[in-house]
Amino acid sequence: MHNARTKPVIEGVTFEQFATARLPALLRYAVVLTGDRELAQDVVQEVLARAHVKWRRISDADSPEAYVRRMVLNEYLSWRRSWAARNVHAVGERLADLDDLRGGVHDHADSVVEADALWNKLATLGRKQRAVLVLRYYEQLEDEQIADLLGCSQATVRSHASRALKTLRLSSEHQTRKFAEEKS
């Protein structure tokens, strides 16, 4: 099953044609996963290097783009650099830029503030929780598809999503109380 962002690749497309056509979408996806443009570029570069080596097998898959996107997800989830695990940076304006490219918010100041707050909240989540939210809300995948991508059960996906959303809600409530205390 393809989501709205996944376009089937026509048979006979070379790796170079695929990479040229899909690089911007893969980078946007990786930025949303990692929260950091430079780390996203590293992840996508690593994945494309591996995909180039096995392009013949990938191009024979039902959906080469879905295959490569899964590689991006797996690379993000298995990233071994300790600084990356501890330092997911807010991208603020860069997220607003992505939103503008998709025809979204037009008030730049509001979008920067909202994007910065969102990235700060997402940075508090564990990798799998964050990945579940990105796959569910950005990629618009169903729990069954997410479970397949992450190699876990649908119940585990729902558990990760529930915990992540609870963490985000608690973070929002804490910020609201703190703001109210500062005002009084």
UniProtKB/TrEMBL annotation:
Domain RNA polymerase sigma-70 region stretches: 21-82
Domain RNA polymerase sigma factor 70 region 4 type: 117-168
An example molecular function term from Gene Ontology annotations: sigma factor activity
BP GO terms, sorted: DNA-templated transcription initiation
Keywords, in A-Z order: DNA-binding, Sigma factor, Transcription, Transcription regulation
Pfam family, one: Sigma70_r2
Keyword Transcription included in the entry's annotation: yes
UniProt family annotation: Belongs to the sigma-70 factor family. ECF subfamily.
NCBIfam families: SigE-fam_strep, sigma70-ECF
PANTHER family, alphabetized: ECF RNA POLYMERASE SIGMA FACTOR SIGM, RNA POLYMERASE ECF-TYPE SIGMA FACTO
Protein name: RNA polymerase subunit sigma-24
Native organism: Winogradskya consettensis
